[in-house]
């Protein structure tokens, strides 16, 4: 997806880039100049040409577990267009009907002409606290031109790195003190755990809040079920305390992008993410030196294989993997429609007997059993189904399951078959397209029906 988006963006085709990233454009830019004037039309054109829809998808909030599904019902303001007398807002939305169609995102314009498709999107999102997710002042999260700004969000100085180390060690009070903010530790153990786990970037926090909310002396950081009230923002030393919902109800909300740590930088620092797994625009901003190589096409396919050390490159072109087996590495290769252990010399009968007696199976055998069961293919198919990648699924099955494989015979771990899941995805995609085309109506939206003649049933168009 990222490669397709980059190719189309390089050709100046922002609509094609959105299509490649599964982002639906619910706005008519051809009528902007007529409806809103040249100034707003030019602003919108510049923003949309700089839009990196794959970078936007990368940064939108997701569920913490499972297949990385986007959170439903979000409305994220991205940019504003104004000519002094009127103001339009470009926003990204994640209505449930779009996510059901393969984790799609919808771009809408707020404050303009009210059409049926935009109303359908707004009816399916939460309009409360949109400023909490606002990216109006943070184009580095969705714009190719603004992406280099991510470099300024990492911990570059020794003082910033020291604060980060204190947070990693769970020394919450010491971290806040090092950042120059007076923290009132809560008495509740549950609130202390919430505060210690809060992914807040303490370095320069008060300055960033003042810049985002000019003239505000008190504000609130909201995350999950908790709220953190900041005070004294215009004083020499700011303060912070965990606050209840009622106490924080009337305080201005600090956008997540102002207070939250950069997830990619943390994952890199903690060793949970490799350089090659970053989005290229993020890698350019966060990494020094040459860019990492593009990962192997099958990197995702074999990522869950037990004890895997990586792909094995051989001159024969036979798929092979390195497996960590004790203190050395052994090869497992796919040849003549089956996986084989090439280097492990242990007797299979002895290994089988040891396993039956409750002993551990050697790593090579565990990897072989996993690969021979086809779980690596099924697990990847299930993830791709969540994200609507039907072409990738068919290519994967054609390559790794054989042309004779019947989709109705492939069972998914969550239940059902691949064929049934693809059929449901097609139905949800059709419904999604009809909604954006304003071709469907729900009963509560219909305010007029054709009056029937006496004795003739009324006809309703759906």
Q: Which characteristics define this entry?
A:
462 residues; alpha+beta; four-stranded mixed β-sheet; 20 helices; globular
How would you portray this structure in words?
This protein has 462 residues and is α+β, with helices and mostly antiparallel strands. Among the domains are: 2-145, no CATH class; 155-261, no CATH class; 308-373, no CATH class. The protein is 37% helix and 15% strand. It has 20 helices and twelve strands. The chain has helices spanning 2-10, 14-20, 32-36, 38-50, 53-59, 96-100, 116-123, 158-168, 172-178, 189-197, 205-212, 245-248, 256-259, 263-269, 280-286, 348-356, 363-373, 375-386, 390-400, 418-436, and strands at 23-26, 75-82, 87-93, 105-110, 181-184, 219-223, 226-231, 238-242, 308-311, 320-325, 328-335, 338-341. A four-stranded mixed β-sheet has the order 1-4-3-2, with helices on both faces. It has a four-stranded mixed β-sheet with strand order 5-8-7-6. The protein has a four-stranded antiparallel β-sheet with strand order 9-10-11-12, with helices on one face. β2 and β3 form a beta hairpin. α1 (2-10) runs antiparallel to α2 (14-20), α8 (158-168) runs antiparallel to α9 (172-178) and α18 packs antiparallel against α19. It is globular and about 75 Å long.
Structural class: alpha+beta
Low-confidence sequence ranges? 441-462
Euclidean distance between termini CA atoms: 35 Å
User: How does the overall form come out from the CA principal axes?
Assistant: globular
Number of strands: 12
Strand residues, percent = 5-15%
- Could you tell me the radius of gyration in angstroms? 27 Å
């Amino acid at each position: 997806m990222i490669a397709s988006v980059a190719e189309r963006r390089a050709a100046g085709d922002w609509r094609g880039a959105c299509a490649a990233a599964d982002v639906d454009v619910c706005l008519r830019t051809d009528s902007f100049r007529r409806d809103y004037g040249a100034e707003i039309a030019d602003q919108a054109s510049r923003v949309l040409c700089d839009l990196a829809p794959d970078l936007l998808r990368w940064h939108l909030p997701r569920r913490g577990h499972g297949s990385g599904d986007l959170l439903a019902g979000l409305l994220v303001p991205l940019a504003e267009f104004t000519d002094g007398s009127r103001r339009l807002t470009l926003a990204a939305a994640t209505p449930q009907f779009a996510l059901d169609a393969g984790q799609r995102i919808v771009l809408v314009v707020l404050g303009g002409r009210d059409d049926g498709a935009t109303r359908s999107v707004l009816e399916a999102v939460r309009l409360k606290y949109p400023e909490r997710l606002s990216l109006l002042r943070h184009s580095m999260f969705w714009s190719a031109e603004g992406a280099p700004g991510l470099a300024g969000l990492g911990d570059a100085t020794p003082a910033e790195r020291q604060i980060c180390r204190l947070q990693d060690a769970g020394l919450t009070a010491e971290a806040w003190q090092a950042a120059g903010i007076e923290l009132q530790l809560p008495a509740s153990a549950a609130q202390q755990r919430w505060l210690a786990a809060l992914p807040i970037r303490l370095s320069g926090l008060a300055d960033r809040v003042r810049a985002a909310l000019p003239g505000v002396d008190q504000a609130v950081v909201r995350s999950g079920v908790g709220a953190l009230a900041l005070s004294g923002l215009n004083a020499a030393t700011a303060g912070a305390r965990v606050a209840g919902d009622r106490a924080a109800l009337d305080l201005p909300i600090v956008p997540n992008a102002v207070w939250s740590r950069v997830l990619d930088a943390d994952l890199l620092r903690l060793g949970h993410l490799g350089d090659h797994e970053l989005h290229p625009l993020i890698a350019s901003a966060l990494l020094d030196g040459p860019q990492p190589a593009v990962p192997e096409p099958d990197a995702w396919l074999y990522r869950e294989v037990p004890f895997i050390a990586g792909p094995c490159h051989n001159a024969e072109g036979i798929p092979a993997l390195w497996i960590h087996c004790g203190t050395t590495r052994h090869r497992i290769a796919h040849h003549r429609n089956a996986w084989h252990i090439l280097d492990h010399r242990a007797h299979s009968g002895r290994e089988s007997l040891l396993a039956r007696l409750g002993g551990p199976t050697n790593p090579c055998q565990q990897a072989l059993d996993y690969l021979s069961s086809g779980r690596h293919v099924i697990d990847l198919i299930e993830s791709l189904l969540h994200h609507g990648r039907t072409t990738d699924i068919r290519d994967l099955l054609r390559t790794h399951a054989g042309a004779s494989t019947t989709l109705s015979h492939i069972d998914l771990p969550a239940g059902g078959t691949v064929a049934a899941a693809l059929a449901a995805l097609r139905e949800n995609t059709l419904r999604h397209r009809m909604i954006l085309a304003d071709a469907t109506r729900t009963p509560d939206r219909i305010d007029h029906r054709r009056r029937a003649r006496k004795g003739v049933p009324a006809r309703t168009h759906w």
